[in-house]
Amino acid sequence: MASAAEIIGTNIETSALFLLTVLLLYTLWRLYFGNPFKPASPLPPGPFGFPVVGYLPFLRPDLHHQFTDLAGKYGPIFKLQLGSRLCMVVSSPSLVKEIVRDQDAIFGNRHPTAAALIATYGGRDIAFAPLGNYWREARKIFVREMLSSKNIRACHDHRREEVRKAIRSLRSKSGQAVNIRELASLTEMNVVTRMIMGSTLGSDEEKREKVGEMFREVMGKFVATLGEPNISDFFPWLERFDLQGIQGKMGNLVKVVGDILEPIIEEGEKMVSEKSQRDGRKAGDEKDFMQILLELKAGEAGKFLDFGAIKAILEDIVIGGTDTTATTVEWVMAVLLDDLEVMKQVQNELEQIVGMNSTVEELHLPKLTYLDAVVKETLRLHPPLPLLVPRCPTATSQVGGYTIPKGTRVFLNTHALHRDPQLWDNPLKFMPERFLDPGLVSGLDYTGNDFRFLPFGSGRRICAGIPLAEKMLMYILASLLHSFDWRLSEGEKLDLSDGFGIVARKKTPLIAVPTPRSSNSELYH
């Protein structure tokens, strides 16, 4: 009978032989098939962070500038671990194309923050709604009913009246300092308010302006709250505790918006009901966008278009239609005040196309090629959304040979694209002429087809409001520059630094002084 020592020795030899066999088989597997516990392609490179919190402690307030700096070190695609969230930053045209064109169906979803989900009634708007039947129908309604060429032409008088009102107001303040962004925001808000609820509010201009002012105030807080860093977005399990109070603050703002909108929606429903009881529509009947939504809700679209969806869509239009446009107007005026020779060239073009005894009209806008180049060059240097809206792949995918796991937060860094010396000559210099070079600018428009220039995004998630935004940008700027000479207030220094948020505004508001260029005060009446 074998002794205990012999049995133990035999067992040790057998165990060792077994382990050696497993190691040999695993080595052969690795040689022929790679590591079975790692993805076939590696994750992109990126900076190291601390355990648990990742790279969060190293983030700077100027996130878009930091991401551009990191792209210079780690390449056109890199990863960041931010808390429990894996993030990727993409900064080259070819890789952006892979995401927004080649794999748009996978990368078409957004990655809404906790505050954004509250603001949009659980993602019922157009900007943050996941891809699917609801998003397709909501976007289709928005584009067909509000942004069609026919409807934009029909709202011509709204835009004309509001721009003229702004010019008249400025003439009355000749020689006084003016906050450019506030002026543009008020003008744009009045236009948007008239388009979405003008018929419902009726001809009472004071009532319309009061509603517009309430919207402008609350939407400013909306945008600021959406841009606040929230620990819940990096550690989703903390969301229920709302440690910073951001979700609670957004919930209160949603209630304020509801208090503004709900009486107007009730009035709109009553008007829609009265119209439907008549025999057909009268020739003079006009419907605003909100009434169109309410009519659709009463029909087949009611299956998905409830009051929450209507409010979320209207919020989208108000924020998207005012904040980015007003911010861009401010940036254009700022860069022109920094380069008075370019401003003079814009004004010379306006004198030639419009004349000094006429007012700017929308029919003049397509002929203002130099002003158009100035706007595009400003958007290149100062895109309103320098990281666009983050995307979220619905399946694990590959971009540039790297693995992008499902659920990753993907940033498209337009700030880096627009300042890449491999794509642009002298990229940090303000040079509108580059957009007049036929050899360079072929395709460099707002459609997102040239991935060097993406101020409004690209692919199926491109900004739907481009036709209206482009028209209003040109109309407001042409009118301001045709009607007035501009200078900074005495002793003021121009600051061209930007801040980071949902929209990248100037860090300090632009305050400028207008002087009328024509003595004819009746022009804009």
TrEMBL record:
Mind listing the UniProt keywords for this protein, alphabetically? Answer: Heme, Iron, Membrane, Metal-binding, Monooxygenase, Oxidoreductase, Transmembrane, Transmembrane helix
Write out the GO MF terms. Answer: heme binding; iron ion binding; monooxygenase activity; oxidoreductase activity, acting on paired donors, with incorporation or reduction of molecular oxygen
Indicate what this protein is called per its UniProt record.
Answer: Uncharacterized protein
Q: Which is a Pfam family this sequence falls into? A: p450
Q: Which PANTHER family match?
A: FLAVONOID 3',5'-HYDROXYLASE-LIKE ISOFORM X1, OS08G0547900 PROTEIN
Transmembrane domains' residue ranges? 12-32
> SUPFAM superfamilies annotated for this entry?
Cytochrome P450
Q: Which InterPro entries does the UniProt entry name for this protein?
A: Cyt_P450 (IPR001128), Cyt_P450_CS (IPR017972), Cyt_P450_E_grp-I (IPR002401), Cyt_P450_sf (IPR036396)
Q: Which family does it belong to?
A: Belongs to the cytochrome P450 family.
Q: Which residues are recorded as binding heme?
A: C463
Q: Which cofactor does it need?
A: heme
Q: Which PROSITE patterns match?
A: CYTOCHROME_P450
